Structure formats: structure tokens, C-alpha cells
């Protein structure tokens, strides 16, 4: 009797595999795929969230949104936020990951301290930092004045308010990036570093010509998720500034929230959600197209 598996056996194994992943696929379909499709449908309709009438308006929501000054302002603010926060996250996370790389008791404690904001409530963090950035009674200005500097109107001036949001966003997500960089640094074979030192390379040269190239997969991944996460920032902005002052921190998701749940303009809000998705897809493609080829996998 032949012990070779038959085609029918392979078919059973294949279908059993689909059954195992079915719960995960169902969750993805319910909470990602269907909301995306539904938002696309709402973006070509006019709906005020309360009435049953949903007249079809085609691309009118997109046109009015692209022509509005508040959308252009939100896009500008978001791009500034992304351009400031993403490089800061990568540089600071890599530097701190180097500092806590060795397996010591102190470094384990520091890793936990750095990661604590990641698992903390964004609302609680934002409320705490709003008090810290208070112009008259905040701890940040108290330290600045103690060092001889002037008080900064952190949450009153549009420019300084945006930088305050950047600081909080970088601080909250820094621990997650540190963990990723620690994993990437530990994955670099020690033999490469030892060989470079034997050849006379000093610490800076080892870091530039060995560590950076071999760490490029981790850096590229951190870059992708940082850009996507920065475009989706909301709770910090909503709690700390509400998009103000003078719309100086009115990022795209905050504009989406205001359109949907304050003005009940569901059609435009859905159009904005679709545009945000297209922007993220476009940026991700550009990063893979022009930066992915520079990634060294071993």
C-alpha cells in the first residue's frame, strides 16, 4: 500500500489551513475592509448623519475639500508635523537603543521606563503635558526661567503649540522604536564588528560602515510605521490644543473629526478619510520604490 499523500489529502490540509486563519480574516474584514469600503461609498454621498436621505453627489465632496483653505492648512500642518517628528524619533531611538543595548539590570529598568508611555493612555499623557506646557504655571517654563530664559507661550502661539505636540508625540512613541532598534542591533553578527575592529576601524567607522547598513531593514521598517503613525496623530492634538490656536495644530485627522462629529458633514469627512488613505499609500509606495532598494538584508 502506498504511503504517498493523495491530492485529496492535500486539499483537506489546505482547507484546514484556511479554517485556522478564518477568525483573523473575519476580524480584518469587519474592522478594516468593510469600513474602508463604506467610507468610499459615503464619500460620494451627502449625508448629515441624522437624516435618511443620502443623495449621490459624485466627486463633489472631493472637489470642495481640495478647494477649501482648511484642508490645505491641515495638510501643511500635518506635513510639518511628520517632517519634524519622524527624523527625531529615528535618531533619538537609535541613540538610546545603543545606550541600553547591553544586558544589565539598569538597562532593563531603563527599557521599561522608555516603553511605559507607549502603553499609557494618550488622553492621560496629553492632559499631563498640557499642564507641563502651561505658560504661567507649567513645569517646563519654570525650568526655562530658572535657567535664565523667558517663558514660552507653548500652547498659545501656533508655532510653539505645534512643536509642543511634536515633543509629546515623539516622547510617547520613542520606547516602541527603541525596542525595534535593540532587536535590530542584536541581530547584527558580532563577527562583522570584530573583523572591522581587527582591520583598524574605530567606533565611528564601525557604526557608519557596519552597523548602519546592516541595520537598514529595521530603520526602513521604523520609517514606514513612523510616517503612517504620524499622519494618523489625533488624540494628542485633540486634548492638548483642539487643533488651535488659529488652526496651528489642525492636523488632517483632527479636521476629519471636526467635519464628521461636530459639523456632521459625513460626506466630506469620508472623502477626507479616502484622501488620507491615498496619501499614505502613495508615500509608502515612494518609500519602497526609492528607499527599499538601499536596504541591505544580511
From the structure above, extract its key features.
mainly alpha; 298 residues; globular
Q: How would you portray this structure in words?
A:
The model has no long low-confidence stretch (mean pLDDT 90). With 298 residues, the protein is an all-alpha fold. α3 (69-99) crosses α7 (158-186). It is globular, with a radius of gyration of 24 Å. The relative contact order is 0.12. It is built from 13 helices and no strands. Helix content is 71%, strand content 0%.
Order of helices and strands: HHHHHHHHHHHHH
Distance between the termini: 47 Å
Runs in which pLDDT lies below 50 for 5 or more consecutive residues are: none
DSSP strand count: 0
| Shape estimate | globular
Topology:
Elements (H helix, E strand, L loop, with lengths): L6 H36 L17 H8 L1 H31 L5 H11 L6 H11 L6 H8 L11 H29 L3 H9 L4 H12 L1 H16 L3 H6 L11 H10 L4 H25 L8
Helix pairs in contact: 1-13, 2-13, 3-7, 3-10, 4-7, 7-10, 8-9, 10-13, 12-13
Structure, briefly:
This protein is mainly α. The chain has 13 helices and no strands. α3 packs across α7.
Amino acid at each position: 500500500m502506498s504511503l504517498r499523500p493523495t491530492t485529496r489529502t492535500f486539499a483537506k490540509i489546505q482547507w484546514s489551513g484556511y479554517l485556522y486563519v478564518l477568525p483573523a480574516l473575519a476580524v480584518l474584514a469587519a474592522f478594516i475592509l468593510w469600513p474602508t469600503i463604506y467610507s468610499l461609498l459615503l464619500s460620494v454621498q451627502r449625508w448629515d448623519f441624522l437624516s435618511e436621505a443620502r443623495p449621490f453627489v459624485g466627486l463633489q465632496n472631493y472637489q470642495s475639500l481640495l478647494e477649501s483653505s482648511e484642508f490645505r492648512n491641515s495638510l501643511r500642518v500635518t506635513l510639518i508635523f511628520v517632517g519634524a517628528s519622524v527624523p527625531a524619533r529615528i535618531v533619538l531611538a537609535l541613540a538610546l537603543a545603543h545606550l541600553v543595548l547591553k544586558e544589565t539590570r539598569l538597562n532593563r529598568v531603563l527599557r521599561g521606563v522608555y516603553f511605559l508611555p507607549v502603553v499609557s493612555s494618550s488622553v492621560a499623557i496629553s492632559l499631563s503635558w498640557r499642564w507641563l506646557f502651561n505658560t504661567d504655571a507649567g513645569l517646563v517654563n519654570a525650568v526655562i526661567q530658572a535657567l535664565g530664559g523667558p517663558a514660552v507661550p507653548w500652547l498659545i502661539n501656533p508655532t510653539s503649540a505645534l512643536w509642543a505636540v511634536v515633543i509629546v508625540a515623539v516622547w510617547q512613541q520613542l520606547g516602541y522604536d527603541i525596542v525595534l532598534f535593540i532587536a535590530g542591533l542584536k541581530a547584527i553578527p558580532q563577527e562583522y564588528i570584530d573583523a572591522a575592529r581587527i582591520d583598524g576601524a574605530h567606533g565611528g567607522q564601525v557604526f557608519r560602515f557596519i552597523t548602519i547598513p546592516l541595520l537598514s531593514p529595521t530603520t526602513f521598517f521604523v520609517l514606514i510605521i513612523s510616517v503612517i503613525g504620524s499622519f494618523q496623530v489625533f488624540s494628542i492634538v485633540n486634548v492638548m490644543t483642539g487643533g488651535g490656536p488659529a488652526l496651528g495644530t489642525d492636523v488632517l485627522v483632527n479636521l476629519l473629526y471636526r467635519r464628521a462629529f461636530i459639523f456632521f458633514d459625513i460626506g466630506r469627512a469620508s472623502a477626507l478619510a479616502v484622501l488620507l488613505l491615498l496619501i499614505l499609500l502613495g508615500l509608502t509606495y515612494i518609500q519602497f520604490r526609492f528607499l527599499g532598494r538601499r536596504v541591505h538584508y544580511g
